[in-house]
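Read as chain and fold; for instance:
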Amino acid sequence: MASRSLIILGCGTSVGVPMLGCDCTVCRSDHPRNQRMRSSVLLKLPAGNLLIDTTPEMRLQLLREKIPLVHAVLYTHYHVDHVFGLDDVRIFPKYLGGPLPIYCTDDVEEVIRQAFSYAFHPGNDDLPPGVLPKLEFRRITREPFSVLGEHLTPIPLIHGRFDVFGYRIGNVAYCTDVSKIPDASWPLLDGLDVLILDCLKLGRPHPSHFNLDQALEAIARVRPRQAYLTHLSHEMDSANPPPLPPNVALAHDGLSFEF
């Protein structure tokens, strides 16, 4: 079987780390793993590269990892830190020879069409490649679907007041931005080798994200072989990480593994 790999392009919270205006130990740290771009991953698959979410640092993330081309984009939800790098995908259709496939729910498509309305004006087809994003929306629901020849299963999650998706491909699941896992979603996490899970902070629970205790409780229930904590705020110090079980680690930008 051809190899597949996952790269964590960013594991930071919505404001990134360091955070603007903050003088805390982590934000002043020179430890490389305390430098966190907004949360996103890339799947390197036999048929091409699948990008999950387009963060504001998307261009920098792809350049850092020497990823020259994305063949499809998949969205977890429509919040700014997961969508607003979308304009920078406009170079990819030039090399693909056609629109870039965008896999998302109807509410994500609606926000993209509003936020990037200039990309959908009549007459844009006459513009040369690379001037504007040329996108082809492919609607997804809670049903499993295929991208680049791979079978993916959406994992419905609660993110504060929002319904969002995590995704499972093979025995790997990516679940960023979650404050609750619905009862019906737990079976979708059975038998995982790797779980990448939201863990914003220490201490008190947050209305929209797992804190460390909640994340560890979920990991103990799922029992993956390995878990990585992502969407980390400046409360999570990679230079002095909190005590974690042997199969749990803080993610870091650039972390990668084959599956």
User: Anything to note?
Assistant: The radius of gyration is 18 Å.
